[in-house]
Amino acid sequence: MKIIKAIIIITLPVIIVLLNLWLLAFDFGWYQSEFAKLGVYQRLEPQKVLAQTGNLFAYLQGKQILTASYYTEREIAHLTDVKNLVTAAKTALTVFAAIFIAALLWLLKKEEAKKTIKFIFWAGVFCFGFYLLKAVFFFFFFDRIFLLFHQLAFINDFWRLDPQTEFLIVIFPPELFADLAKRIIVYSLAGAGLLAAISGLYLLRLKNKTR
Predict the structure, then answer these.
(1) To which H or E segment does residue 191 belong?
(2) Is a pLDDT exceeding 70 seen at residue 211?
(3) Cα separation values, 127 from 16, 82, 142, 167, Å
(4) Centroid of chain to Cα 172
(5) Collapsing DSSP states into helix, strand and coil, what is residue 210?
(6) pTM for this structure?
(7) What's 70's DSSP letter?
(8) How many whole angstroms from its chain centre is CA 187?
(9) What are 66-80's pLDDT values in tens digits?
(10) Does the keyword Transmembrane apply (predicted)?
(11) N or C: which end of the chain has fewer CB within 10 A?
(12) Running DSSP on this structure, what letter comes out for residue 173?
């Protein structure tokens, strides 16, 4: 039983983050406001930026072929790596979700519902605390974390782009990814908090019924 609970504790925070990543990373409307905020439209033609972004998102989701005329060979190579990373993240989300559901169903079968709900409550609290700790690290050390992520996620240096000749980094500067990371953490905190709140209220309701 401890192994099953450990599996749930390990998979739950990963699922929440990956789910929010998938939902938020392709939020076209949010990017439009970010482009305006970061001055992208002042450097590049808005229509071209939006067309390029729409095509890129469709490419990363496997819906369209990348419009190669927008990019240099180095940028295309990097975007191929990014697409592979996106595919891996989607696969990981599916696998972790399947493992989590199987573990949860096993737990519900072996334990009474009240004990399982209580465990889910504390799992939600754990996730909330974990994301809060991540938020602190991202707030103070985002540049270092962003650099380390690229060094670990990519086996080449195609991600080192020149803003003078390669417009991908002009459209998607590090500041945009910092804002995206903050957004994902905030939504993950909300998800964990909601999970803890719902399970906590359910436990409180059961407690009141037994009085």
Answers:
(1) helix 174-209
(2) no
(3) 9, 27, 20, 37
(4) 17
(5) coil
(6) 0.91
(7) G
(8) 9
(9) 998 899 999 999 999
(10) yes
(11) C
(12) -
